[in-house]
Amino acid sequence: MKKLIYFALTIISLGLTTSCSSDDNNSGSTKNKETITNEVLSQKEGDYTFKVYSNVKEFYAPSANPIRVEITDNNDPTNKTFINTKMTLMMHMPSMQHSAPMTQLQPLAGSSNKFLGELMFTMAGMDLSNNYWAITIETENKGQKIKTEIKTTVRQGNFVKGANYANTDRKTLQGFNYNGARYQAAMHEVKNPIVGNNPYYVTIYKSTDGGMKFPVSDEFVIDIDPRMPDMGNHGVGQVIPSLVFNTNTGKYEGKIIFNMGGYWYINLLIKDKAGNIVAGQFVPSDSQVNSEAFFDIMLKND
User: Fold this and answer.
1) pTM
2) Residues 181 and 215 reside in one and the same domain
3) Which of 5, 89, 111, 174 has a C-alpha 20 to 30 A away from that of 208?
4) pLDDT tens-digit profile of 179-191?
């Protein structure tokens, strides 16, 4: 039986607080850098070209990936009005197929041929003949319906917890089991993170219908505890309030604090509404051992 444990942080020692002071006023430079810049996939479908951009150079699993889809008329570059654009995501394996969580495509502000969405890859697949992912995109242009299926490999993520964090993949998707069901917690991109307070969003999806549907779940409470493993595993010197589920957005929302640049390991503690821990572990303030359930992020020093 899971025990009821209260998730609390204690104040970090004065030495760490002095060297890594927190910034409650969001001071520091906020640079609106575009992050979805890497062309990951491209495919021609008749007279049209579909390109998929992301913030990674290649897809890996498990991960949550913001994407931008751009559709181009190869015969008429001025033809940029595409409507009813949507996508589906499916993994194909020799004996079965299943889907994964995603955020449906929405037009980029001011554009009718560029669309933003998110893809969550739950497992790797490296054989385009019988173990791969497929992104199917449908759209309409001048009364013509267009549909394309883009196959892609997804490699296994490299989440080494050693000192060479810069050469590892970022962990943005965490799976867990609860009451006989499988869930996926997705960390949405922290855009242009700064030293100080940053908006922070997580969505939890429940796998239903044999992995073909992933409705948003509001069953949980999420606590986060950012640590710096290569700096004595210190935290941020204050308690970060639990993320609160927003029924309008379907996301658990709150803030995350960073008090210096570098690699941050974000411990996850996911509890049901009775307070029972269903994923992750409480990490004492002086512990060098982090939770098995986690996200991470690299905050660059500008």
Assistant:
1) 0.87
2) yes
3) 5
4) 999 999 999 999 9
Ramachandran assignment for 262, one of left (phi > 0), alpha (psi -120 to 50 degrees), beta (any other): left
Q: Longest C-alpha distance within the chain, in Å?
A: 66
Q: How far apart are CA 127 and CA 130, in angstroms?
A: 6
For residue 2, is pLDDT > 50? no
Q: Is residue 271 part of a domain?
A: yes
Residue-level pLDDT at 226? 97
Number of domains forming the structure of the chain: 2
Q: Which of 265, 293, 278 is nearest to 165 (CA)?
A: 265
The Cα-based distances of 140 to 46, 84, 143, 147 in angstroms read 13, 6, 6, 9
- Distance (Å) of CA 84 to CA 68, 77, 79, 88, 140: 16, 20, 16, 13, 6
CATH code, domain carrying 290:
2.60.40
Instruction: Name the pLDDT band for 18 (thresholds 50, 70, 90).
Output: very low
75 and 194 both lie in a single domain = no
